[in-house]
Amino acid sequence: MPKQKIMSILVYTESENGKFKKAALEVVSYAKAIADQMGTTVTAVAVNANDTEALGNYGASKVLLVKDDSLDAFNAKKYAAILEDAAKKESSKVVVVSASANSKYLAPLLAVGLEAGYVSNVVAAPSNVSPFTVKRSAFTNKAFANTEITTDVKIVGLSNNSFGLVESGGSASVEDFSPSIPESGVKVESVDKATDKVSIADAEIVVSGGRGLKGPENWGMIEELAEVLGAATACSKPVSDLGWRPHGEHVGQTGKPVASNLYIAIGISGAIQHLAGINSSKVKVVINTDPEAPFFKAADYGVVGDAFEVVPKLIEKLKAFKAANA
Amino acid sequence: MKILVCISHVPDTTSKINFTEGDTKFDTNGVQYVINPNDEFGLTRAMWFKEKQGASVDVVNIGGAETEPTLRKALAIGADSAIRVNTPATDGYAVAKQLAKVFTDGGYDLVIAGRESIDYNGAMVPGMLASMIGANFVANCISLEVDGTSVKAVREIDGGKETVSTALPLVIGGQKGLVEESDLRIPNMRGIMMARKKPLNVVEPTDASEETKAVSFEKPAPKGAVKLVDADNIDELVSLLHNEAKVI
After folding, report:
1. Taking the CB of residue A18, how many other CB atoms lie within 10 A of it?
2. Whole-prediction pTM value?
3. A134: pLDDT confidence band, cut at 50, 70 and 90?
């Protein structure tokens, strides 16, 4: 038998301004769990990242680092080509990506390139590696599907905050990687992004406001509560339809999905379309004047009360809590 | 411009989600089907291209005869003709493969698909299709303008948005923002009558084997009752979030 090349688990670690996102550390932790199940190691692919040591601590043995200024603007086709090259070089049979907008953009292109079956929204380590079976959320968080990937190469898209960070205290070797990069017919002209705020996708806590807040002028306390918690701000569909808040804050079935650890809904009744989008958040808190609001059936904790009285009190108590636990 | 709009036939959001045959099949009993909401935003944008720029608009679904009422609804909204590829929609790859054949046979310039379907939420068919046919691709598309073969599109990214320039042929994964909720059209009686006379062509599938397979389904564990905290006792809420839920 010829000596088999190592078939490491490949993981795409997304960075922003040179720094890894939390989701990148989570997918490395996840890839390490698969590597342990399959008796192999983890190779991370990073583009223009600086703090590559961080990846070793979460389980990567090797980092393939691409340095190229022309890749500063994300391009799905180019990034998919980098990962395709890396997977072939490493003879990888499993590729792990996150659920970020960029990872979800490139994964289908990579799947076609590698002739790999791709499963998105995966919420746990594989229940079995032969046949390779993962649990994914489906029906907009109303069910899970245990899904087999039948191809030789497999791509797993992990839901944010579903596996968590697992430090393994290792270290990774860093290798410069210069794959050939194809031309792309899609060119970024401009990016409009608030740099001083936590995005809904990256947030561990999301504070969300609904029509119960009566008008856009009342969002000061929502922003203050979010600031105290280090949370992202979000809103219900009617609020974005009324133009009180930007569309990018709309969460729910047709808006952004939320998979935070804590979701605080203020003045949101809890229409089924809203709940569908936020249901994979782990802990849900509702503050609403109407005890019959459907959100109370979906929430873990509830306060029946006027947001204009409850939220300022909550801010005050949280500030005291933070001060006491600092 | 020839536009192909992909229409997923999905359970209405309010449907009860249940499974049969030992939790291996989705239970369609009593389920109302609708046009996938993300596809409906795209279809409505396609109507704009038809009315303002003289585009032709075909709609397509991969599925059995039971999906035809959903395609007829798309025709009633204003699409010119419909195509149904006569095979069940298994996984994203197999669906993309069927769509690639429809694209090539029809000579389309632009494919408008939804960001994801609200049943399987795979968010992979548009990208796979684009890759198979060698077209440009914009995911999470919230604005689309076409001038000749030049395209300006806006993509929603984590924490903001990104404006891109690209060209036809193009596939987009569209969502709300392409048009607003208030722009969506409810078919009127005339539209419904006309839809009956519009062509709905059933074509046989090409070879496409699936790459992934849902072997069983499960529902989330039932949630306990909400714990109510008195509005005058917010200290308790903070304490519960810290000590019990351990999220702060």
Report:
1. 11
2. 0.95
3. very high
* pLDDT of the residue at A1: 44
Question: Which of B226, B228, B229, B239 has the highest number of chain A CBs within 10 A, making it the mutation to test binding with A?
Answer: B226
SS3 assignment, position A83:
helix
DSSP state string for A142-168: TEEEEEEE-SSSEEEEEPTTSS-----
pLDDT by residue (tens digit) across B179-237? 999 999 999 999 999 999 999 999 999 999 999 999 999 999 888 899 999 999 999 99
Cα(A149)–Cα(B212) distance, rounded to whole angstroms?
4
Same domain (yes/no): A210, A162 = no
Structural domain span for residue A104: 9-176
The reply to whether A166 and A27 lie within a common domain is yes
- Establish if A82 belongs to a structural domain: yes
What distances in angstroms separate CA B55 from CA A306, B47, B136, one per listed residue? 51, 8, 19
At a CB cut-off of 8 Å and minimum separation 6, what does B193 contact?
none
Q: Tell me how far apart the alpha carbons of residues A206 and A201 are, in angstroms, rounded to a whole number.
A: 10
The torsion region of residue B148 among left (phi > 0), alpha (psi -120 to 50) and beta comes to left
Tell me if B137 and A186 make a contact (CB, 8 A cut-off): yes
Q: Is some CB atom of chain A closer than 8 A to the CB atom of B161?
A: yes
Taking CB atoms within 8 Å and a gap of at least 24, the contacts of A276-279 are A276/A140, A276/A141, A276/A142, A276/A252, A276/B13, A276/B118, A277/A140, A277/A141, A277/A251, A277/A252, A277/A253, A278/A206, A278/A208, A278/A251, A278/A252, A279/A140, A279/A141, A279/A142, A279/B220
Q: Which of A107, A187, A301 sits opposite B226 (nearest CB)?
A: A301
Q: Is B158 on the interface with A (CB under 8 A)?
A: yes
> Which CATH number fits the domain that encloses residue A281?
3.40.50.1220
